[in-house]
Amino acid sequence: MLSKFKPAWWMSNRHVQTIMPRFFRPFHTTRYQLELLDTPDGDFLELAWSLPKNDKAPLAVVLHGLEGNINSFYAKGMMKELKKQGYSVVLMHFRNCSSQANKLPRAYHSGETGDLDFFVKQLKQQFPNRPMVAVGFSLGGNVLAKYVGEQGDDCLFDGAAVVSAPYDLSPSCQVIRKSLGKIYQKYLLDRMKKSMRRKLPQIKQQIDLTPEQLMKIDDLWQFDDQLTAPLHGFDGAEDYYQQASAKPYLKHITTPTLIVHAKDDPMLSIKAVPSRQDVSEHVTLRISEKGGHVGFISGNNPFKPVYWLEQVVPEYFNQLVNKSSYDHSTPATR
User: Fold this and answer.
1) pLDDT (tens digit, 9 = 90+) per residue, 319-331?
2) What does the radius of gyration of the chain's CA atoms come to, in whole angstroms?
3) DSSP H helical ranges for the chain
4) Residues sharing a CB contact under 8 Å with residue 171, sequence separation 6 or more, in sequence order
5) What's the CATH code of the domain at 125?
6) Catalytic residue among 232, 265, 269, 298
7) Cβ count within 10 A of residue 27
8) Is residue 206 in a domain?
9) Of 47, 117, 217, 274, which has the fewest Cβ atoms less than 10 A away?
10) Which residues contact 199 (CB under 8 A, 6 or more apart)?
């Protein structure tokens, strides 16, 4: 039985749940080793492995959110807890979120599952007899949910957890554009523009945009329409949102999958919250009234916040992967 989320009495507001965790862990660190994995198209994926490595432990893949990386508070916290519970943990940076610029013009987006598929197959080829699970946050959650749905019975993960994913990108974009006086939109856009600015020389043949024009973009939909969509072969922002949304794939999931979502998420549309009718029988829904966006802080002591996500996700994975009795000579089974 998975634990249920009860918001901290001192963090009942959805914006507080969303914003404050970033300040609770300013000095939270995790030891990791970077690895570059060459991709078939001549680029690379930057991986961050938790240290020390355990070559016999079950594998846990972490997917960050929009403009996230190994330094994102939620990624560091989850990696540390999964490592503590006996997993070998690796974070896959999406292209253009690495410590160094990628080689090709393309970057990443909410529905890009090709890199994840390549990485997962590389892991399974290298470690064929080790169970493998994955957790994705926000954009990374949409990527993961879409991926396990696309793969169906061929999915190589033994379990997945999806946290605060948009699922239906178009209405969620509209919420971000308006929520909290557009503060969330500005926060994301500032990071997206800074990240894209270093790629402008690479993409000038595809997109004729000066640094000044880039910095004047003040709307998320406009950014996706002028940059994300044309860079990745979509016919505008709405076409991108329609094709990249994970919601249509949820019914095709056959891998045990945990979906964690808060109805009061200030960055995503309530219309996108999956219902029992939207998902397959292999999906466990944990939909709470409160929790914000990748927040889910509980506990009675303001000086000792409890990170519920770091309880429920490992709990779920541990039900699927019996590490204590795991026979390293045989393949993992679901």
Assistant:
1) 999 754 444 333 3
2) 19
3) 14-19, 21-24, 73-84, 114-126, 139-151, 169-197, 200-203, 211-216, 220-223, 229-231, 237-244, 309-320
4) 269, 271, 272
5) 3.40.50.1820
6) 265
7) 4
8) no
9) 117
10) 96, 101, 102, 105, 107
The answer to whether residue 128 sits within a structural domain is yes
Rounded alpha-carbon distances, angstroms, from residue 146 to 71, 149, 252: 25, 5, 9
To which H or E segment does residue 159 belong?
A: strand 159-163
Considering 64, 109, 232, 293, which one is annotated as catalytic?
Answer: 293
Bridge partner list, 135:
62, 161
Which residues neighbour 10 within 8 Å (Cβ) at sequence distance 6 or greater? 302
Q: Is 154 a catalytic residue?
A: no
- Beta bridge partners of residue 262, listed in sequence order: 288
265 part of the active site: yes
Per residue in 80-99, pLDDT (tens digit) is 999 999 999 999 999 999 99
- Verify whether residue 138 is a known catalytic residue: yes
Q: Which of 138, 170, 179, 245 is catalytic?
A: 138
Please state, in angstroms and rounded to a whole number, the distance separating the CA atoms of residues 148 and 320: 16
In a domain, 230, yes or no: no
pLDDT value of position 88: 97
Tokens of residue 166, six digits: 């948009």
Following DSSP, what letter does each residue of 55-124 receive, concatenated?
Answer: TTSPEEEEE--TT--TT-HHHHHHHHHHHHTT-EEEEEPPTT-SSS--SSS----TT--HHHHHHHHHHH
Q: How many domains does the chain have?
A: 1
- In the chain, the amino acid numbered 13 is N
CB 126 within 8 Å of CB 103: no
CB 208: neighbour CB atoms within 10 A? 8
191 domain residue, yes or no? no
Token output for 249: 């794939």
- The domain of 129 spans 9-178+247-320
